[in-house]
UniProtKB/TrEMBL annotation:
This is 2-keto-4-pentenoate hydratase/2-oxohepta-3-ene-1,7-dioic acid hydratase (Catechol pathway). Keywords: Metal-binding. It comes from the Bacteria. Residues 28-227 form the Fumarylacetoacetase-like C-terminal domain. InterPro entries: Fumarylacetoacetase-like_C (IPR011234), Fumarylacetoacetase_C_sf (IPR036663).
Amino acid sequence: MRTFVFAPPAVPAVPVDGTSDLFPVRRVYCIGRNYAAHAVEMGHDPDKEPPFFFQKNPDNLNTSGTFPYPPKSDDVHHEIELAVALKSGGRNIPVNKALDHLFGYAVSLDMTRRDLQGNAKKMGRPWEIGKAFEQSAPITPIVPAADCGHLSEGKIQLTVNGDLRQEGDLNQMIWKVPEMISYLSEYFELSPGDVIQTGTPAGVGPVVRGDKLVGSVEGLPTLEVTVI
């Protein structure tokens, strides 16, 4: 009988809102520059780009209500996002069937070591050092779509210490949720437990220790995070 050489880590999971259930996380996909104004503020033309994705690690999802400022960076930025969680998957999912695979929605942050990401871009290297670090994706409990409906419009915003930093509407996403699911399924076999962060509106900026971040998406619980 074969055994593990050491005890395997616990399965990363996110609470399901209003229940004692947990949503087990398999992978975390993140779409880049999915709001036109954010693409412009990052120096890109949103009309010329097909969608592109990078990944965070499943255990980067963070439900603690705190965000530990990471090492090796002096320029960590907030990016407020809608996250979607899948209950099923497959390959080559048609756009008109994509929402059939969706379990629910959450509010999330894609915290970014912007200086390290910028250096990686200049050198043509992957972004993981700037994106996929410990506790870099604070997230609320997941609200089942059966409870909140499918979210295609509604205000998304972030305040820092009470000051509005980011504001937009879900209907401003260049690639909508069904299109993201369909596109990803052409390149990866999607599965239950996959989470997709759907991009951030304009207004990203730095945080410092002690900052209090409050993120919201209309129709979902509020995300409150303190930088420590």
